[in-house]
């Protein structure tokens, strides 16, 4: 940093701006709401640090030196820029904003958490844009903190303690199959459940084990998993077009007309979905507005369903 700047403080620069504007110590003191001797002392300090008299006695008060004339414009611009930077953040107006938000969301989070808010978002903030990204959970905290993401929707069990968080929904698992599936006409026994052909969702499309299999293993049982897909939309489509069944989050299938949904014949732990964001965006008006929109929409939907 410039050595001259280290020897000055902001008050001296504000005083210099007033002196260059008024070219009179008394008027500058009045403008600054300071005593005239205080302003005179500050002018002396400015002269010492800048190595220039700055203002010289003249027939109509004080006249700026050439150095002072050179300083006046840049100093005024710098003080205005600093004042603007330190001014209170303007309120967010969604109607005129052209904000782009980047949200990490799986296809489950997209369907269950984002889609319920989308129509309202488009109506209230028609010039904004939304980018939905499927990110690896291990990278979420870094991507949020370094500016690659603005928000993440994820389960509590994998949420980084470094991030701000807000609980959105609790979801449970249900058994789903095509409407008219012959084996789902009545409640299944655990033995019949294990005998059916199952499909699972695995993020990489290669896994055949999930929460249901862990719950069955605790009872010494296993099921027949014959299909693994990489996203829930493919899973729902597979169920609608076959006799496969799947244990899926209830929010994904409760409004699917092509599917029949019932409780599975064993207890499977559900999960909680969170909204995650970095400290750098915690007080940002646009970000706060988006967080509140998503959360309030889901709360309204939950209250309507209860």
From TrEMBL:
Belongs to the LysR transcriptional regulatory family. The keyword NAD does not apply. Keywords: DNA-binding, Transcription, Transcription regulation. GO terms for molecular function: DNA binding; DNA-binding transcription factor activity. Residues 8-65 form the HTH lysR-type domain. It comes from the Bacteria. It holds the Pfam family LysR_substrate. InterPro entries: LysR-type_TF, LysR_HTH_N, LysR_subst-bd, WH-like_DNA-bd_sf, WH_DNA-bd_sf. It comes from Pseudomonas trivialis. This is DNA-binding transcriptional regulator, LysR family.
């Amino acid at each position: 940093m410039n050595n001259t700047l280290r020897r000055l403080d902001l008050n001296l620069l504000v005083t210099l701006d007033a002196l260059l504007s008024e070219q009179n110590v008394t008027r500058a003191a009045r403008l600054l709401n300071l005593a005239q001797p205080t302003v005179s002392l500050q002018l002396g300090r400015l002269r010492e640090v800048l190595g220039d008299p700055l203002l010289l006695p003249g027939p109509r008060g004080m006249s700026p030196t050439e150095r002072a004339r050179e300083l006046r414009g840049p100093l005024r611009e710098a003080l205005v820029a600093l004042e603007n930077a330190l001014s209170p953040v303007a309120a967010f107006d969604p109607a005129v904003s052209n904000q782009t938000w980047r949200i990490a969301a799986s296809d489950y989070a997209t369907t269950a958490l984002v889609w319920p808010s989308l129509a309202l978002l488009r109506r209230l903030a028609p010039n904004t844009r939304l980018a939905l990204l499927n990110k690896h959970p291990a990278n979420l905290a870094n991507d949020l903190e370094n500016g690659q993401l603005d928000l993440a929707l994820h389960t509590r069990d994998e949420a980084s303690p470094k991030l701000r968080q807000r609980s959105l929904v609790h979801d449970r698992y249900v058994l789903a199959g095509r409407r008219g599936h012959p084996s789902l006409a009545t409640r299944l026994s655990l033995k019949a459940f294990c005998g059916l052909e199952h499909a699972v969702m695995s993020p990489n499309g290669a896994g055949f084990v999930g929460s249901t299999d862990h719950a069955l293993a605790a009872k010494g049982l296993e099921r027949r998993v014959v299909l693994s897909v990489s996203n829930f939309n493919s899973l729902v489509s597979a169920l609608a077009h076959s006799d496969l069944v799947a244990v899926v989050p209830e929010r994904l299938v409760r409004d699917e007309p092509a599917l029949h949904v019932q409780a599975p014949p064993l207890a499977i732990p559900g999960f909680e979905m969170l909204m995650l964001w970095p400290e750098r965006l915690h007080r940002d008006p646009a970000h706060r507005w988006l967080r509140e929109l998503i959360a309030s929409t889901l709360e309204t939907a939950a209250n309507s369903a209860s």
